[in-house]
Specification:
Elements lengths: L1 H19 L9 H8 L1 H11 L9 H15 L9 H14 L1
Helix pairs in contact: 2-3, 2-4
The chain binds calcium ion (2 copies).
Length: 97
């Protein structure tokens, strides 16, 4: 009698688990896409955040670089980078780095 109950619990809880831990099995975070989309940010990330110097930004490096970019870009510190803040930060990086 225990077995069917356990199977039922697993069936019910597994979609919930998938929602709680998104991206655990999918190692391509949004952080990496920021840099793949924009060569200015990619060059900047490669210069300062390519920790193993293989001239590639891995997901873990992208997360560090994205966090650093957010600190630069989020001028009003509301935790979000608006398109205007993004453009300003991109221009700043392009001019300075
Ligand atoms: Ca690397
Ligand atoms: Ca902001």
């Amino acid at each position: 009698m225990i077995r069917p109950v356990a199977a039922f619990v697993l069936l019910v809880t597994s979609p919930l688990m998938a929602q709680i831990a998104p991206g655990r099995s999918q190692p391509t975070p949004a952080a990496l896409q920021i840099f793949e989309r924009d060569w200015v940010l990619m060059n900047w990330a490669l210069k300062y955040y390519d920790a193993d110097k293989d001239i590639r930004i891995e997901p873990a490096e992208a997360q560090v670089a994205a966090a650093a970019f957010r600190r630069i870009a989020d001028a009003d510190n509301d935790g979000r980078v608006t398109p205007a803040e993004y453009r300003a930060a991109r221009a700043f990086i392009l001019a300075r780095y």
